[in-house]
Amino acid sequence: MPPSPTNSLERALLLLDIVEKTPGGLRNAEISRRLEIPRSSCSWILARLERKGYLMRDENTSRYKIGLKTVALAHGALRELGFRAGAEPVLYRVASQTGLAAGIGVLEAGHILLVDRVEPPERAGQGLVRARPRDQRDIGRELPAHTTALGKVLLAHLSREDLDCYLDENALTRKTPRTIVSRDDFVVELRRIRQRGYAIADAEHDAGVRALAAPIFDFTGDVRAALSLNGSPAAPVWRELKTLVALVIAAASDISGSTRFPWNGIS
Prior knowledge:
Layout: H1 8-20, H2 28-35, H3 39-51, E1 55-57, E2 64-66, H4 68-80, H5 84-98, E3 101-108, E4 111-118, E5 122-124, E6 127-129, E7 142-144, H6 149-155, H7 160-169, H8 183-196, E8 199-202, E9 210-217, E10 223-231, H9 241-258
Helix pairs in contact: 1-3, 2-3, 5-9
């Protein structure tokens, strides 16, 4: 639990963060208890956030959920990243080629922020059903860096100073029995990833998911994002790992060469 917020702005920001992370929403009493603030103060903040569209209240359950205003802000921020328009054709292509989900993530405040994702097309008879539309993707989701292929490939390209800072500030929390939780082992793993040019997370975040990721570079040669493919470890495409690695590296290279990076938020 973070320290109890001391002013209305801090309380409002923490409140939005708590509600966003709680499927189904929360009631006033639950929010005030989590923030450790009086219920009357919580009601005052909730009313104003609801009035401005940052929250919505379910009349039947009295639960507050994230409002559409935050969605508009999120899409505005993602638009400013500058590379989604050029990257999406590549995501659709590799998702269709492999039958795996394709996504792009950036390292932001010690977590992976998923900025785009394309689901694999599903076969219907002899044809293909269109992949899941943008408004149904899990875009904007935050993931741990140390348990994901996206995160590992991005951490592998940090300077040693920045990596040490990350490891000092972020615990290597175990998500599955296969999560790497030893700092020394993790540093060795990142060294291997940087040398070979790709990362694999095999049931390290979710026991039913295997992922493969490669770095996306800007014109200066700095790593600004990463491209990943993920799906069930039982998918036949994983049997041709060498081919799959070449495909994801080539796709990341295509994005590196065709998009712009005006955003400086990776940290």
